[in-house]
Specification:
The chain has about 290 residues and is α/β, with parallel strands linked by helices. The chain has 2 domains: about 90 residues, Alpha-Beta Plaits (2-Layer Sandwich); about 200 residues, Vaccinia Virus protein VP39 (Rossmann fold, 3-Layer(aba) Sandwich). The protein is about 30% helix and about 30% strand. The structure holds S-adenosylmethionine. S-adenosylmethionine binds next to helix 4 and helix 5.
Length: about 290
């Protein structure tokens, strides 16, 4: 068993709080910040606030830590040892996404054997099981676009578990390139590619910003990140879209579509479509031929 303390705090206090929790004996601390895409099954954050989830290996240390931080009124909760990192796996079930793709956990292959394209995902600590609306919006569009444009080159910016890049490779994309700024996620993606039987190097996994991706622009670029990052990276991401190529963006709440589109229209792209799922949307743009 391990012991969990949940502390809700303003976002600018989270880092200091995490350092305090480590000093007080926490074995691990997870930070959840407003605007962050949370793992499926995670309770929503209170408006404008963040959360520290601190894990302790024994009750005494957790109780003592809570006593040192009385203003949070936190009480240690006993959780099974494996819970804090992998409990959400229980919610990871096979899902049909797009016309051809079925995403499934590696331990659940029964339904997968009947699908045309199967993507096994054991995402570890990286985002992208397929159950988040933004991932599904991107993967289903990749499926459709690669049916229309077989063999197109695909760039997946912010690959997380690698789900979109792996899907693209299995859907018959040409060159597939996936970028990250988080080395742990990139390793999860590398493991995911191997799990799906893809040869080393089939997906180029790069720890770089989009403007450092080598080679020619891509026929399909997909980026499921948050609005601020998508706007900040707009010149670099847009430059990676080939003439006549498509850009699929998500990680956007429904009311953020206009701002994202404006940033990319300013780079010479034009909007060709939008789709909403739950409170999230996908925006699609094209670079004129
Ligand atoms: C919401 S997840 C998307 C994961 C996966 N592509 C999916 O659709 O489920 C966003 C990912 O983008 C990565 N990321 C954030 N900023 C980035 C940047 N500037 N360059 C590359 N990756 C970035 C994060 O580390 C995270 O893994």
């Amino acid at each position: 068993m391990s012991f969990l303390l949940v502390l809700v705090a303003p976002p600018d206090e989270l880092e200091i709080l995490a350092a305090d929790l480590f000093d007080l004996g926490a074995a691990g601390v997870e930070l959840q910040e407003p605007g962050q895409l949370l793992m499926p099954g995670t309770a929503p954050l209170p408006s404008g606030l963040g959360r520290c989830l601190a894990h302790f290996t024994d009750r005494e240390t957790a109780v003592a830590a809570a006593a040192e931080l009385p203003r949070f009124d936190a009480v240690p909760v006993e959780v099974p040892e494996e819970d804090w990192s992998v409990a959400w796996r229980a919610h990871h079930k096979p899902m049909r996404i797009g016309p051809r793709v079925l995403v499934h956990p590696p331990w659940d292959t029964a339904e997968a054997s009947r699908a045309q394209v199967r993507v096994a995902i054991d995402p570890g600590m990286a985002f992208g099981t397929g159950s988040h609306a933004t991932t599904a919006l991107c993967l289903e569009r990749l499926d459709e676009l690669l049916a229309e444009r077989p063999g197109a080159d695909v760039l997946d910016i912010g690959t997380g578990s690698g789900i979109l890049a792996i899907g693209a490779a299995l859907l018959g994309a040409g060159r597939v390139c996936a970028t990250e700024n988080d080395p742990i996620a990139l390793e999860a993606a590398r493991g995911g590619a191997a799990l799906n039987g893809l040869a080393e190097g089939r997906i180029e996994l790069l720890l770089v910003e989009p403007d450092h991706v080598p080679g020619a622009p891509f026929g399909i670029v997909v980026a499921n990140i948050l609005l601020n990052t998508l706007v900040e990276l707009a010149p670099a991401i847009a430059a990676r879209v080939a003439r006549g190529g498509r850009l699929v963006l998500s990680g956007l709440l429904a009311d953020q579509g206009d701002e994202a589109e404006a940033a990319y229209r300013a780079q010479g792209l034009r909007t060709v479509g939008r789709k909403q799922r739950e409170e999230w949307i996908r925006v699609e743009l094209e670079r004129p031929a």
